[in-house]
Each structure stands twice: as C-alpha cells, then as structure tokens.
Amino acid sequence: MTAQAFWDRHAPKYARQPIADPTAYEEKLRRVTALLHPTDRVLEIGCGTGGTARHLARVAAHVTATDLSAEMIRIAKARSAADTASRPHFLQAEAKEDLGRQPFDAVCAFSLLHLVDDIPNVLDVVYRQVKPGGYFLSKTVCLKDGPRWMQMMVRVLIGLGIAPQVTLVSRAELTRHLADAGFDVLETRYLGKKRINPFIVARRPVA
Ligand SMILES: C[S@@+](CC[C@H](N)C(=O)[O-])C[C@H]1O[C@@H](n2cnc3c(N)ncnc32)[C@H](O)[C@@H]1O
User: Fold this and answer.
1) Rg (CA), the chain
2) How far is CA 96 from CA 93, 113, 160, 195, in A?
3) What backbone phi and psi angles, to 5 degrees, belong to 141?
4) What is the DSSP letter of 37?
5) What are the backbone angles phi and psi of residue 13, rounded to the nearest 5°?
6) Which residue stretches of 20-118 are H helix?
7) Does the predicted TM-score (pTM) go above 0.85?
C-alpha cells in the first residue's frame, strides 16, 4: 500500500482520535507561537487534519498547510470552513515538493519526518523554502532511540497494515541531517513524557 493510500484510509479514524498528550501539544503550540510574528508567512507540511495549522493561522499573517493525503486535506478544509477571521490555505502536496512560492518565515513539520522515505531530500526542499533567518520547527519520532521491543512492535504493526512505513532515525542522525541541509540547530527538547520525539528549533542562517 502506498503512503497516500494508507493515510487516506486512516484519515477518518485519525480525525476522531483525541490528542495523545494534550499537555505536550499545548506546550508545542506555545513554543511555536512564541517564535512567530503577526506578519509571518508560515508553511506546515504533513498537516494532517489541520488543527495545528488553524491555530497558527490565528497568530501569523498567512498559513499554507500541505499533506500527502487528499482525505486529510478534505477533513482539514471542512473543519476550517467555519473559521471566520483567518483560515489556512490547505493543499494536497508531498513534503518533498517545493511549492515554488516566496520563501516562508517558518516551516513546521510535526510528527512527519519519520514518515518520509528520504529525510535529507525533504530537508533540502524545506531549506530552500525558508527565508534566511527563518525557522524550521519540527517534532519527529526517533524510533532508533527507543527500546528494541518498540522497534519490533512497530515492524509488526507495519506488517499488519496498522502502522505506516517509518524511517528509523535517531535524534543524533536527525540533528546531523539538519546541519547537512544547512540549518543551525538552536534547541532540542522533549515536551512530553516520551523521550523519543524531540521538538527541534532550527534556523536557516542569515547569510
Ligand atoms: C502522524 S500524522 C501528523 C499530522 C499532524 N502534523 C499532527 O501533528 O497532528 C502524519 C501526517 O503526515 C502525512 N504524510 C505522511 N507522509 C507524507 C509525505 N511524504 N508528505 C506529506 N505528508 C505526509 C500523513 O498524511 C498524515 O496526515
């Protein structure tokens, strides 16, 4: 099954699920909001059903939010239809797609990078889409940092079609990939109880 087919099929169930760790989620929104300005143009890749993008649209000037899954984008658009003042611009696109727009002040990728098959390639595309001095804010499941039983369990779930294909990456490897793409990594921290999904603040150098 392709990744798009997987996420299209799982989108309705994903949309019904409560946020797994609301405290960590709120903390992430607070940290992201603190880095943004009301004039900023923001891109979120792998936006899912659009909850985070809709929050960002209330604190930034413009938000473009993309996802591989047409079904996720359909749900995101339906959910934001009643938003009055500011609404994200949702569109179906692969994370590795350069939208060819004017560069963004910030690009976000939450619970996404471990799902793409070529992280360095996606980071190169993200880098091109961030303004010099702009941020790349991410939260990524670094399964390589987890216990072996967890990696084995994920393999079983992938085999059963319950979990999507994942790229095994460690926090150290992810940090290296970010540096190789040209980013300065400013901050890495864990927002919830889990120690396998670091929130990373990276910045494209000014010059
Ligand atoms: C775990 S969900 C996270 C959604 C949202 N970012 C959040 O934090 O709630 C992963 C999302 O990434 C999308 N996705 C998976 N692979 C992708 C890819 N290669 N390009 C763009 N989106 C992708 C899926 O369709 C899904 O909506």
Assistant:
1) 16
2) 8, 11, 27, 27
3) -75, 115
4) -
5) -70, -40
6) 22-35, 51-59, 70-80
7) yes
- CATH 3.40.50.1820 assigned to domain 3-203? The reply is no
Q: Which atom of ligand 1 is nearest to the CA of 19?
A: 9
Give the dihedral of Cα atoms 5, 18, 201, 4; nearest 10 deg: 0
Average pLDDT of the chain, as a whole number: 96
List, in sequence order, every residue forming a beta bridge with 110; answer none if it has no partner.
139
Phi and psi at 107, nearest 5°, equal: -120, 135
Q: Which two tokens stand for residue 15?
A: 């949309």
CB 49 within 8 A of CB 12: no
Best of 75, 112, 141 for a ligand 1 pocket test (most atoms within 8 Å of beta carbon): 112
Q: Please report, for the chain, the start and end positions of each structural domain, with discontinuous segments joined by +.
A: 3-203
* C-beta of 141 in contact with ligand 1 (< 6 A): no
Confidence check: pLDDT of 1 > 90: no
Token code pair at residue 33: 């909001």
Under a CB-based contact definition with an 8 Å cutoff, are residues 118 and 96 in contact? yes
Query: φ, ψ for residue 172 (rounded to 5)?
Result: -65, -40
| Percent with pLDDT over 90 in the chain | 92
pLDDT of residue 104 exceeding 80: yes
Residue type, 21: D
Question: Ligand 1 mean position to 207 CA, how many Å?
Answer: 31
From the CB of 111, is ligand 1 less than 6 Å away? yes
